[in-house]
Each structure stands twice: as structure tokens, then as C-alpha cells.
Amino acid sequence: MVFREAQIFTSKLIVYLVVIHTYIYADDISPNHAQDSNPYYIDYRNLDRKYYPYIKTQNKYYDKDIIEIMRNANIKEQKSGFFVGIMYGGNINFNPAIRTSTITIANTLFNPLLFGLRVGYQDYNNAILYPSYFGYQVYIDIMASFGANGAIVSGINMDFLYDFFEKKHVSIGLSIGLGFGSARFAGLRFDNFNHEFAYKINFGFNVFLFHNHKINLIINASQGVQTGLIGVIPMIGYDYVF
After folding, report:
1. What's the pTM value of the predicted model, to 2 decimals?
2. Distance in angstroms (rounded) separating the CA atoms of residues 149 and 223
3. C-alpha distances in angstroms, 204 versus 132, 162, 163, 175, 185?
């Protein structure tokens, strides 16, 4: 009988202790405790609205996916901005065919002293091109070398960007794009043809450091519409991204 009463008393005591503990600590959950139970600890009430388009586009709603989306969005924002750049290289001028109306004095000429400038905007900060290693850049450029074998090429360009390697402060990528503008290739004709409308194909390899410094290896090929003359320009360049 005594043993039975002791059992009942012990059971009631345990229940009372649990109730008291719950009442005391129910509203006193520390941030560390909350973070331990939810290691991502996302504050959805105050979540920046800039993340919403990415979340909606990716159609992912688990915390671990939201954290990855936020990380990529932050990187995309850091890598986007206006830029100004300088370039140095050379130009190789080609005359691909001899025309009956043109007297050809050379088929290929080279000039090792070409300088260039470019100004534009690069954008990784969009919800469609996801994750952070896809982007594009729009820019105007001018490249010029002087002398008998000189070339002058200028225009507006748009390149697609793909960063195949990305760490905290370093990304390495490729670019490919098109441009349209003006070109003049000297030394291939007696009539010294002036500037003509030209189209351009751009290829690039770039290293992006600390979200501001971009080193580029660029090759572009331009062709004049009227004469058909071609200029290939390999360059090394530096962009500062604001």
C-alpha cells in the first residue's frame, strides 16, 4: 500500500516539475538555442525584398535552399556595376580576297602597338540568369594603332559572361559577344579607304578580384562591310568595376 502511494506521489511530482519548467522557460528561448534548433536562422519577417524574385524564379522554399539563393544574390550584386577599362595589344590586318576593283598590295600586316579604352556596365544581378556565375556586359570601346599598318576600331558591344570558377574574392570566367561600329584597316589598299561600318566578334578570358578589379585577355575580330577587310586584335586589359 505504501509502495503504491509512493509511486503515485512520484508520478505527480514529475508532472508538476515538467509543467513548472515549461511555464518558466516557454518565453525565454535564447537566440543561441533558436539557432541551434534552426541553424539557418532566417528572419523572414525582415527579409530584404531583393531576394524575392530569385526565390520565386527558382521555386525553392526550404531554408537551406533560401540560404543558397541569398548567398548567390549577394555575390551577383557585388559583381555588378559600371566599369572603365584600358587595353594594350596589337592588330593583324587581313585582305581575305582580291577584288577586281581593288589593287591589293598586301594580304597580311601586323602592328604591335595598339591601345584601347572601354566604358560600360556588367550585370550579374538578375533573376533569370542564375546562379551567380552567369551575366552580361554592355560597353562602348575604341582601339587604335597608328602607322602604315594601323587600325582603328570602335563601337558598341554586348557580351555574355560565364564564370566557371568562383571563390570568396576570386572568380574566373569567359565571355563571348558581338559588336557593331566603325573600322579602318590601313596598309592593304592603295586607295587608303576611310572608316566603314563593321561588325565584331568578341572572345575573352577574365579574372575578377575582390569585386572591383578585372584582368582580361581579349581577342576580337572585325570585318568592314564595304571592303571586306578583316582585323584581328589580341589584347590584355584591366577594368575597374565601381
Report:
1. 0.73
2. 16
3. 18, 10, 11, 5, 22
In this structure, what C-alpha cell is assigned to residue 93? 590586318
Report the candidate in 171, 140, 170, 174 with the shortest Cα–Cα distance to residue 160.
174
Instruction: Name every residue whose Cβ is closer than 8 Å to that of residue 118 and which is 6 or more positions away in sequence.
Output: 84, 85, 87, 139, 140, 141, 142, 237, 239
The residue among 203, 234, 194, 193 whose CA lies nearest residue 91 is 234
Closest to 241 (Cα-Cα) out of 118, 140, 153: 118
Bridge partners (DSSP) of residue 91 are 111
CA–CA separation, 129 vs 123, rounded Å? 10
| 8-state DSSP, 211 | T
Q: What is the mean pLDDT of each run of 10 residues along the chain (242 residues)?
A: 56 51 43 48 78 78 82 84 97 74 65 96 78 88 88 96 88 96 81 81 96 95 89 96 94
Q: How many CB atoms lie within 10 A of CB 73?
A: 23
